[in-house]
Amino acid sequence: MASLHLADDRQPWRNVPRRIAEEFRPLVPTVAAEAVAAIRRQIPEYARPADPKYAEVLRDAVEKAIGHFIDLIADPDTPWDEALEFFREIGYGEAKEGRTLDPWDTALRLGARMAIRTFGEHADRLDISRQTLGHLAEAVFAYLEILSAAAVRGHTEATARAAGELHKRRRRLIELLLTGTASPQAVTDLARLAHWPVPRTLCVVAFHERGQSPFRPPALPPDVLVDIDRSDPCAIVPDPDGPGRRAMLATALRDWVAAVGPTVDPMADPSHTARSLHWAREALALARRGLLPADDLVIAADHMPVLTIMRSRELVLLVAAHRLKPLQSVRPSQRVRLARTLLECLRCGFNATEVAARLQVHPQTVRYRLHQLHDLFGDILHDPERRLELEMALHAWLARSPPHDHDEPPAPPAEADVIPLTPLR
Predict the structure, then answer these.
(1) Which of 161-170, 272-281, 310-319, 330-339 is modeled with the greatest confidence?
(2) Domain 312-398 - what CATH class?
(3) pTM
(4) Given CB 3.0 to 4.6 Å as the disulfide criterion, which of 83, 126, 359, 399 pairs with 68?
């Protein structure tokens, strides 16, 4: 630690006559012993009858503080390095033991009051004026502020280091869980080091920023393992089906497009967490393309038919090339509008009002498009088997059309124009 440099007006000990140092130096052991006794008596955190070493450290700290203060009175240019480093280490140690600096601050001020009282008791014998006593009191509290700042620095360093180490362990734990190959024992061991109780159930949430400004990282609770620095940000959520957990996720991820993977038991099979991530990613990809509603959390388990269809796109697109052929007869600017309208009609049982609400258009617009669709597809729209086939084909075909570009959609796929299956990761 670098030497301390203070302006003269911040060194009130320079106003104390130097002879005072020599007068009070013999009293240092007595004052220190009384201060330690009072601190241990009045501050529970420092009362450790079974730990004599701690009492020795406490006494050493008090003696160093008083002794260095006396040295400053004798010579205001006395170096600070050793004293500041000593009290920085005290702050560091307090943080490592999990304490705040409140007890330490109380102990400092208690010791200061006792030192000032001792000075006052000997003032008449040593012919010390009231003005000099005032300078002494001012100097004592200015000195304590500097020691306190050194302790705060050490406490902050230790806290930051512990937080950084914990953050690293949690990131390693995320990677271990998501690889899908770690043994339950390996997960348990690292989770203990990361201060993360292994839950009975969990799910993985994959999310992507909506692009809103300013950027706000998700405000998830401490029991959620989250890594937003990945190329594909995600979070591992314990007990996702517990009371209030869904609402918590919806609130924390409101600035993100987020998809929730299935709930799994992480200890039953090493691959379960990775599979929850896989389906969260699949649902997120569809939500970002406009094929699943993305205004709220996308729950992968609630969209099993769509996800299943998209896993079989090769077969579905071959069928779509035939079933959606009527759309080739309309202008390109109409194809996606009609396709989306037909998909929502199939979903809503051809209820024009409900379809209009989903598409955010007027019901009459839906009825007009339905007339067009009936002209194009005929009675196939009322065939239950064909309607299921159409819905699957529309999902697969619309997945190839960017949701923001409806004016130049692609033509329905030819039989050879298929999309390869995405391998299960």
Answers:
(1) 272-281
(2) mainly alpha
(3) 0.53
(4) 83
